[in-house]
Amino acid sequence: MSDTAGEDRAWQRLDKWLWCARFMKARSDCARLVAGGLVRINRQVTDKPHARLRPGDILTLPLRQDVRVVRVLALAARRGPAPEAQVLYEEIADGA
After folding, report:
1. What is the CA radius of gyration of the chain?
2. pTM of this prediction?
3. What is the DSSP string of 24-40?
4. Which CATH superfamily is domain 12-91 in?
5. pLDDT in tens, 68-79
6. pLDDT average, residue stretch 35-51
7. Burial class of residue 88, CB neighbours in 10 A (0-12, 13-18, 19+)
């Protein structure tokens, strides 16, 4: 069974997207971050690594002594190199 068996083209698992977008090195670390209740999707706290993420969603997450706010631009087909990962999201400036 494929890892993306439950996903369709309209959404992707939050932990998988974070991993493909290269916010962390291991998918299990992404899942742990989400399970700890530290990630927000559209201002709503989520503790479910399997939460559905869609293009246009706003993510707020703590990383490396900082809080990052990003807008999801696209879903990931795979975990590729950093330049490929950077087109999946855009940073939202403070106060925007």
Report:
1. 12
2. 0.87
3. SS-HHHHHHHHHTT-EE
4. RNA-binding S4 domain (3.10.290.10)
5. 999 999 999 999
6. 97
7. buried
3-state secondary structure of 46: strand
The helix (run of H) or strand (run of E) holding residue 16 is helix 14-20
As a whole number of Å, the end-to-end CA separation of the chain is 42
The answer to whether residue 63 scores a pLDDT higher than 80 is: yes
Q: At 27, is the pLDDT very low, low, confident or very high (cuts 50, 70, 90)?
A: very high
Place of tokens 């807008």: 71
Q: How confident is the model at residue 93, as a pLDDT? A: 75
Q: Where are the domains of the chain?
A: 12-91
In a 13 Å sphere around the CA of 56, the CA atoms on its Cβ side amount to 3
Buried b (16+ CB within 10 A) or exposed e, 52-78: bbeeebebbbeeeeeeeebebeebbee
